[in-house]
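Go through the following before class.
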Amino acid sequence: MIPTELEAELYDRLVEHYRDNTNVQVIIERRTRTNRRRDSTYGGKRVIRDRRRARVPGTFLGTDPPDAA
């Protein structure tokens, strides 16, 4: 991926360099904003949920031994 600012300098040279390699495609970055979803209503909002198992309701017996009578 070539930044737009370097397109005139690098595009033709990289296409020529990688012409025999079918696994490489030289592309020019056309995005103008870094995060396109920030201003939209469908993305950019992360919901953090507590996925731990809920505790058993109620009270537990104490761990101290009973008093000797």
